[in-house]
């Protein structure tokens, strides 16, 4: 049993969920990852909980993936300004200490009805911090989105199938 723990990989999913859509996706993704891959621990870090409880941000000790919904005010995502609202604590967390260098990438979510603003916050974080947009999903995401993102995470963390 101890030998198994030595090979255990920690997968960290950092996110913020305001309407419950991102929370639902990350929870289903965690379950799927645990069902499909061996020797993994999946950690969910909800930035909203840190802010709500007045906890200080902390430096991540391992690589992580960020999940970020899009909440914007104003602009159209093409030729005039927009202001990120409600999700800014995620940017503050990534900017804290050395966290940006440990981020493997961002998964954006949103509503395709918003056209060019769909997943715009994730694209802006990618540019700001220099990590890739790994994937996107609409609203709560479908099983296909879960499988796609799980495959990307499996490649990034070099996970082994069960």
Number of domains: 1
Tertiary shape: globular
Query: Stretches where pLDDT falls below 50 for ≥5 residues?
Result: none
Protein structure class: alpha/beta
Q: Work out the number of β strands.
A: 9
Number of helices: 7
Q: Architecture, according to CATH?
A: 3-Layer(aba) Sandwich
* Mean of residue pLDDT values: 87
Strand content: 25-35%
Helix content: 25-40%
Amino- and carboxy-terminal Cα gap: 17 Å
Largest sheet: 5 strands, parallel
CATH topology: Rossmann fold
* Adjacency order of strands in the biggest sheet: 3-1-4-7-8
User: Order of helices and strands, N to C?
Assistant: HEHEEHEEEHHEHEHE
Oligomeric nature of the chains:
single chain
Query: CATH class, anyone?
Result: Alpha Beta
Fourth CATH level, the homologous superfamily: Flavodoxin domain
Report Rg: 16 Å
């Amino acid at each position: 049993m101890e030998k198994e723990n030595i090979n255990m990989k920690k997968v960290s999913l950092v996110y913020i969920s305001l309407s419950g859509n991102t929370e639902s996706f990350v929870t289903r993704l965690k379950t799927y990852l645990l069902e499909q891959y061996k020797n993994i621990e999946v950690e969910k870090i909800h930035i909203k909980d840190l802010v709500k409880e007045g906890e200080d941000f902390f430096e991540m000790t391992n690589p992580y993936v960020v999940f970020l919904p899009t909440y914007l005010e104003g602009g159209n995502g093409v030729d005039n300004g927009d202001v990120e609202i409600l999700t800014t604590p995620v940017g503050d967390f990534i900017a804290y200490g050395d966290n940006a260098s440990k981020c493997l990438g961002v998964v954006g979510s949103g509503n395709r009805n918003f056209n060019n603003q769909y997943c715009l916050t994730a694209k802006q974080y990618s540019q700001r911090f220099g990590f890739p947009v790994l994937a996107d999903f609409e609203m709560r995401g479908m099983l296909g989105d879960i499988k796609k993102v799980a495959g990307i995470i499996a490649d990034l963390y070099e996970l082994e199938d069960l």
